[in-house]
Amino acid sequence: MKWDWSAVSDFMPHFWDGLLVTLQILVLGSLISFALGLVWALLMRVPTRWVTWPVGAVTEFVRNTPLLVQLFFLFYVLPEWGVTFSALTTGVFAIGLHYSTYTMQVYRAGIEAVPVGQWEAATALNLPLRRTWTAVILPQAVRRVVPALGNYVISMLKDTPLLMAITVLEMLGEARLFSQQNFQFTEPLTVIGFAFIVISYLASLALRALERRLVH
Amino acid sequence: MTSGLWELVLHGVWVTIQLLVLSSLLATAVSFVVGVARTHRLWIVRFLAGFYTEVFRGTSALVMIFWVFFVLPPAFGWQLVPLWAGTLALGLTYGAYGSEIVRGAIAAVDPAQREGGIALSFTPWQRMKLILLPQAVPEMIPPFSNLLIELLKGTALVSIMGMGDLAFSGNLIRLALQESAEIYTYILIIYFVIAFLLTRIMRGLEKKLKAGVGRTPTPKTDVEPKPAETTNVGGAVR
């Protein structure tokens, strides 16, 4: 096995560019998935099956089909319908949508874990529905589910390389480009593989610290 | 779509199913070996198993696939057939997730069962084989079912390496027809149907295994936590 340190140092500038894009995808994708997941979770509680069945079916479908094909779908079909976004925007939206179908489960579990006495108290205080949710239920539910949401952020980090398939130059995209130009595959791929392990490990440590803080 | 294109889709389905079966077999083997190793009494075995889990779970499946396709051949001087390369990358990655399921299920068996085995002076291997695993395996099936769906979704990644699976046939047909909405809708639906069938099969398996240890299946829950990602290197049994 030949290892060439000069290839590593040549790759590093590209690596930082890629890392920046990866983190961008991660942050924006997480925000979309947190927001959209909450919307799905709330819609699933609307007391009519005209809402819950379509929402349930769509999210089930998105959750059980590959993100890669969803990316292709959005990347190639939307322009046919006359909607054009950059590859990065499409990718961020796709990954956010995909993960929102996971986060909705997390929110749902969190909402169901709020003790029934809280609901009864809100009714007893004659709080309107809106205030019951915003001031009583959601603050307690969201606090419970932060660690679980964090797990999905780490999962999402490991799905960001998929955006390479729709021409986004994140870490893996940069590594592939560099390898093809210089015919050095070993070093860039190993560097980013290592980077993924380090980032997800640090993230899981941070998450555990956060979890401890929230519990106490 | 013409019948020739449908044949292409069918071929893609066949490749996807082959890859799914092979990599799920490898992943199961890895899960059990590594998961059981994490309960071993020697710390070095636990450490190595935990290290494996962290490394393979920490990196992205797609990066792993690239690595197996591009780094292994020059490094070791041999090249794998794409199907085996895909199987290796997916099996090792998802096996690392599966080992957490195995470890968790073994740790969740009532401690009295383990103590009973010690009292009857079973060897550790007998305890594992005759007492712990028969009770732990049925509990593993629901999380394994979720992992299997994740693996099915993961098989689409090999299309990036040019392997002719379902997602790849979709791309070929898009190029042939210059029309994406229809073909990608079909491809997504086919994936969904496969996932649905897998869920059914796994539920049947769970029922059978639980009947074997005199329990009833847990009622269906929608919560499907992806494998938790918060363990340390070191592999101490928590």
TrEMBL record, chain A:
It is found in: Cell membrane. Keywords: Amino-acid transport, Cell membrane, Membrane, Transmembrane, Transmembrane helix, Transport. It is a multi-pass membrane protein. It comes from the Bacteria. The keyword Protein biosynthesis does not apply. The chain crosses the membrane at residues 20-43, 81-99, 189-210. It comes from Streptomyces edwardsiae. The gene is ehuD. InterPro entries: AA_ABC_transptr_permease_3TM (IPR010065), ArtM/GltK/GlnP/TcyL/YhdX-like (IPR043429), Ectoine_EhuD (IPR014341), MetI-like (IPR000515), MetI-like_sf (IPR035906). It holds the Pfam family BPD_transp_1. Its main location: membrane. The keyword Transmembrane applies. Belongs to the binding-protein-dependent transport system permease family. This is Ectoine/hydroxyectoine ABC transporter permease subunit EhuD. Residues 19-207 form the ABC transmembrane type-1 domain.
